Amino acid sequence: MTGTARSLLDLGDLGFEQGAHLLVQRALETLPPGAELAVAGLDPALVVHLEAWCRGKGHRALRAEENDEGVRATVTRGRTDLDRWARAERAGRPEPGGIVASPDPSWGLAARGALVEPGGPPLNADLVERDLVWAELAPSLYAHAASAQWDPATAIGWDAEVALAPEIERAVVQIMTFLVENEQAALVVPARLLARIHPHFREVLQLLAVQAADEARHVEIFTRRALLSSGEMGTSSVSGRESLATLLTEPDFSLASFLLSVLGEGSFLNLLTFIDRNAPDPVTRQVARMARQDEARHVAFGVAHLQHQGKVDPTLLGRLRGAVEQRHQTLVSSAGLNQDVFDALVLLAAGEWSPSGIRRGYAAVQELQEEMDQGRQHRLVRLGFPADEAAELSALHTRNFM
Amino acid sequence: MTLLMGAVAYDPKVVTIWGGFRSWLNEHGCPFDFVLYSNYERQAEDLASGRIDAAWNSPLSWIRSRRLAEANGRTLTPLVMRDTDRDLTSVIVVLADSPYKDLADLRGETIAVGAVDSPQATLLPRSFLAEHGLREGAEVELRRFDVGVGLHGDHIGGERDAARALAAGKVAAACMIDSNHLLFGKEGTLSAGSTRVLAQTPPYDHCNMSVGDTVPEQTKRNFGELLLSMSYVDPQVRPLFDLEGLTSWRPGRVSGYGALERAVDETGFYSAEGTVTAQGYRP
């Protein structure tokens, strides 16, 4: 006895086969170890079950003598349930301000802010430092991304009339084929990265998951537009695939984010605007426009993440530069853009095969490349590169656009 | 010396449990290894003959290895046991709406028991029933459910089959350990409230860590003290305790094995020297 008054629990006719242990457990939780709980009840098997249950839970039950209160047994509270949580800790706090710099890998998949029982297998994640993956903008970007999801079946007016000259249609099909290939790279890269990030940084995981889902939709709508009239896809060149392969092999989160989102998807914003502007039919215009909305968000996260990291890592700019140079070296002997894609873009902007049309189209594609270059330089400057270095690095970007 | 312990592989989790204990003990300065047996009889023989230093013994295996050892002038020590090995009971259960009001009402009936070598579901209840005037083959018939023979009742299958036979009305009563009556009610093998506990045996003890006299006193003491120091607070220990079903190790004791010793003698399960004499028992 601890000297404290003995508590009494009356189970009525509730048996242990029907959940009586929950009431006993709740009553014991209010008592300190060593305190006693008198248990009354009418279930014939109550004492047998109470004894067996207490034994397994580290409590002790003592059968009562006959008495007026109908008490059947007295439980002496053990401490096993307390011991389980004795060294438990909170996995940070739930709100974004509560993330910690280096979450314990053994927190595993526990919700941020949960009380975590120590032990258990460590998480197989290698991106476990806040400064490697975080951006202050991530929570609001995720919220925006989630609210901006759209249904490919209804967001595009698939029933609109599309009756193009066969060569113009072929140019659209070629561009769509190129876009699908690039979007597949853009799907795989964030999907791979998110599995490597500690779930403590859940807004980053959520954002990357939505990013992958965005690309999945883009793959769908570009494929559907390509097959709308001809039923056949265009060509895929070795050089295009070589260029994309270099994105998939970059293991560093920041560098992968830089190459894909800031430089690649950044250039794609200009490309999608170009397709929108020169689209020969409403479906082509819509698919470009819908995809562009999403890509703008991906670029924003990439830039925000690198701006955050640039503040804590003075070596970042040097590493970004190294990544661009290395990718350039890898691709130096590659042709870059699929010639069929380049020609298709010219024809799309020309709208016809006349000399004046081709002149116009060719100039438009040159202007597109200039816009892409300006856009890259602008983002590089935002990351902290001096203007001349930004120009130099932008020029080294792959000719494949992405 | 590396202390070599035997354990019976009645379930795949045994590897996880003893592999975990092995790591913990070695990290805490006690060289320890284990070997697995397919049944308790060979383990009991090997412990008694000194081929292994210790054994995680069922109560029945404790009795046999002790008898074998003592017949050869050796001694075994029940070093530690789980807190959950102390003061267990078995229950004789009937259907709630059956006419049986006390044990005597079972005269002439058939009672389901577990495997031939289950202390809790066969040997102890049979002795308990005989003590209350219900002898097997005379006043009552026993229907045995031999699942996992050689595992000394560690396999729950025999008890569950006995409970199913009761639920199906094929027998008048069934014998099982108290915690399994609770488990079968929770899992639905016996629907809640459909059975009644007609009688309950006095408390008895279950497994223990038996250590042979091949182990130097100091090593034995260290081993025992280390086990007793294992804490449920320790995240490395806790999952092992949860799997093995204990919340702490307690000192071993022999006071809880009297009823089983008597039951073994009554049915001639083992001879006084530890020879297997049970009829039809093939582990």
TrEMBL record, chain A:
Pfam families cross-referenced by the UniProt entry: TusA (PF01206)
The record's GO molecular-function terms, alphabetically, read: oxidoreductase activity; transferase activity
The protein's UniProt keywords, in alphabetical order, are: Transferase
Q: Where are the transmembrane segments?
A: none
Checking CDD domains in the record gives:
Ferritin_like (cd00657)
Every copy of the UPF0033 domain together lies at: 23-76
| Coiled-coil regions, chain positions | none
Check the record and name the InterPro entries matching this protein. Ferritin-like_SF (IPR009078), RNR-like (IPR012348), TusA-like (IPR001455), TusA-like_sf (IPR036868)
The name this protein goes by in its record: TusA-related sulfurtransferase
TrEMBL record, chain B:
Which Pfam families did the record assign?
Phosphonate-bd
Supply the Gene3D superfamilies for this chain. Answer: Periplasmic binding protein-like II
Q: What is this protein called?
A: ABC-type phosphate/phosphonate transport system, substrate-binding protein
Q: Which organism is it from?
A: Nonomuraea wenchangensis
